[in-house]
Amino acid sequence: MALTLYYHPIASFCWKALIALYETGTPFHPVLVDLGDAASRAAFAKVWPPAKFPVLHDPESGLLVPESSMVIEWLAEHHTGEASLLPADADLARETRLQDRFFDNYVHVPMQKIVGDRIRPADKKDPLGVEEAHRTLDMAVDMIEARMAGRRWAVGESFTMADCAAAPALYYANRVHPIGAKHPSTLAYLERLLQRPSFARVLAEAEPLMHLFPG
Length: 215
Prior knowledge:
Layout: E1 3-7, H1 12-24, E2 28-32, H2 38-47, E3 55-58, E4 63-66, H3 68-78, H4 90-118, H5 127-148, H6 161-176, H7 184-195, H8 197-206
Parallel strand pairs: 1-2
Antiparallel strand pairs: 1-3, 3-4
């Protein structure tokens, strides 16, 4: 039986899991969750009470795997398929996990702070929090620029979990906090990510709903 992925087509952390599924060629059944619809949210909360996606379900074992990084870790162990997203070398694997956390915590999270503030009611805005998020993104992009000079992928010579994390984080961050010409290595890295077939597929599938993105 195919795996089940609970997700939304424009949710950035769902993109991270989708890229991994496409990279490994793992068959799965997608279940679209609309958190704005009470019935859809309630049905999903019965599966995973926090109602946060993505969540992967393995019907054979009954195992539920929430959180994008855990989904990729699980795929790397059980569904390597066409690609291994975690290096076999222990030091490279540790560096991959570190870069995965870097892109999630210092690019993805502040980007989501900016996006989230845009859809808040006028009397609930958090300008100080948004300003802090922009400063965090400035710092993060400077670090990425220094790291990616002379590199093709985030860690080692192959596309890894770190690149799965980088693709949605940088794509959306660039829309709310443009990277700019002073970061050519970061822009070149983003372009390589955009050209990666797995990410190109994710973007094509998301396109019909991208008008919902407040940016």
